[in-house]
């Protein structure tokens, strides 16, 4: 059973402005450790799969940085999308590459910008998921919920499967607080972590059945893998693939979907408010960085300084970020709205800050 990790690195991470920019999105930032998130993502797979069998999918703007941050990745394993077309085409691109090498090879599709506190437990869960996938299931990892989170989608558990895992009864969109509380209390729901494990041939069959509009394009890509014509075929075909997520395109339609529960200290590090989940805080709940940063009489704040002095006094549950050329101040409970700053800068054509 050969495993082929696929690290999805196409996101923009606008909720982390001003640290994240178009050329340096969230996955390239050291938000959870001293290393960028994408570097940590690749490193935690050591012992489970080889780097020579690992792929990264990203856009042209980020290809050079991705290759630099995941040292040792074979150049041919860097799959560059000509244009962004959502997760279904991105996963299809990786799947045809793996299928050309090993039709029954098992892909492990991972976001590049998540944090895992217990890598050993994570690898163990992925190995279990791979055994399920070997039997023909398309597996998604479900994260054991620790709170009624309204920012995540949920997976409703169905009946148990032979050999472990559960059938998926339903995928649920991000709920309101009351609904999320009901999900957690019931014990029948898991967070949807966006991590998928499947055999290459099984996913290609799923695309053919549930996204038939992709069939012609995938056939062209499959026929060109390994040939000098592949870049030209990719450039021609990829922009015509439907811009659809794998969730809508396949996961919510297929009958062979399984979910494997996992509890390994997962966080999607979805905004600055999530930083305390992945970084140690002081006695008053503040997460502070920057040699010249001074925090006085604050509680529950995230204060990330640059090289110059940054002083924050008397605040509670506030995010303050100095990126050198731009500063952000926002209440933690409004940190999801940081993307609106990016929209406003775009409207003002302030390209130098994007």
Please provide a brief summary of the model.
This protein is an alpha/beta fold and 354 residues long. Helices cover 29% and strands 24% of the residues. The protein has 2 domains: 265 residues, Spore Coat Polysaccharide Biosynthesis Protein SpsA, Chain A, CATH 3.90.550; 82 residues, no CATH class.
What does this 3D model show about the protein?
One of its GO terms (molecular function) is GTP binding. This is mannose-1-phosphate guanylyltransferase. It is a single chain. The protein is α/β, with parallel strands linked by helices and 354 residues long. It folds into two domains: 3-267, Alpha-Beta Complex (Spore Coat Polysaccharide Biosynthesis Protein SpsA, Chain A), CATH 3.90.550; 272-353, no CATH class. 43% of the residues are buried. The chain is built from eleven helices and 17 strands. Helices cover 29% and strands 24% of the residues. α2 links the parallel β2 (55-58) and β3. The termini are far apart. α3 (87-101) crosses α6 and α7 (215-224) runs antiparallel to α8 (230-237). The protein has helices at residues 37-43, 63-69, 87-101, 119-134, 177-186, 200-210, 215-224, 230-237, 246-251, 275-278, 339-347, and strands at 3-8, 55-58, 78-80, 106-111, 115-116, 138-143, 154-160, 166-172, 189-199, 257-262, 266-267, 287-289, 293-296, 302-304, 310-313, 318-322, 327-331. The model has no long low-confidence stretch (mean pLDDT 95). The protein is globular, with a radius of gyration of 21 Å. It has a five-stranded mixed β-barrel with strand order 6-9-7-8-10. A four-stranded mixed sheet has the order 12-14-16-17, with no helix packed on it. Strands 5-11 form a two-stranded antiparallel sheet.
